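Inverse folding, one chain.
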């Protein structure tokens, strides 16, 4: 499970998902769109249905990457522990994929104490020369977690920057997959700052 607001999804998300899938040998990676990310209330711009369509456009044609509407369909606040329970099955090993910034805030999440019992944690870290710079400087997480660290190419792109670019008329080509740029244009998303 790779959760996010995806407001909008960008190439950093796609690379993180596909590199983690390859690196850990996962069957599939679900990009789970948060319905109501309660820690970002007031800051979320696009409706959940649009953010979900953007993620669908981003993963179209990429093997093993899928958009998941599990949180959007459930509605209400996005609680990752609830989502992992919904995705769980006896023959399934779940992996929670997080960027290092998100992993550092894990302790503040709802039901944080239940999470290590539900999944393994994969922390995606921006590599320098293909390697994680210093393993000891990763995020501090609850020792109850089993943690895998995944090095990914450093792509300095954020949803915040993509939104600002659209609002000011600057290009986003290359920062988001072409189908995502097209959908943002077609729906007129993010045109107001
Ligand atoms: P915002 O700027 O609105 O906070 P964001 O770009 O950080 O958006 P989120 O939806 O908040 O995107 O992040 C979802 C997940 O993707 C988080 O685990 C985050 O750490 C990770 N992530 C975000 N940007 C990148 C990137 N450039 N490379 C790798 N992982 C990323
Ligand atoms: Mg973020």
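Residues assigned per position:
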């Amino acid at each position: 499970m790779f959760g996010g607001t995806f407001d909008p999804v960008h190439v950093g998300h796609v690379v993180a998902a596909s590199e983690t899938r390859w690196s850990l040998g996962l069957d599939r990676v679900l990009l789970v769109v948060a319905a109501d990310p309660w820690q970002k209330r007031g800051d979320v711009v696009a409706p959940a249905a649009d953010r979900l369509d953007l993620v669908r456009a981003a993963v179209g044609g990429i093997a093993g990457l899928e958009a998941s509407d599990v949180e959007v369909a459930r509605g209400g606040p996005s609680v990752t522990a609830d989502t992992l329970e919904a995705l769980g099955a006896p023959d399934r090993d779940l992996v929670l994929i997080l960027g290092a910034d998100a992993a550092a805030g894990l302790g503040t999440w709802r039901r944080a104490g239940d999470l290590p019992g539900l999944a393994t944690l994969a922390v995606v870290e921006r590599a320098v020369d293909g390697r994680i710079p210093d393993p000891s400087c990763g995020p501090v997480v609850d020792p109850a977690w089993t943690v895998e660290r995944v090095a990914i190419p450093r792509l300095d792109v954020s949803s915040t920057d993509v939104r600002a670019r659209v609002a000011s008329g600057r290009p986003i080509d290359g920062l988001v997959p072409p189908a995502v740029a097209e959908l943002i244009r077609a729906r007129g998303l993010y045109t107001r700052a």
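The two ends are 30 Å apart (CA to CA). The first strand starts at residue 2 and ends at 4.
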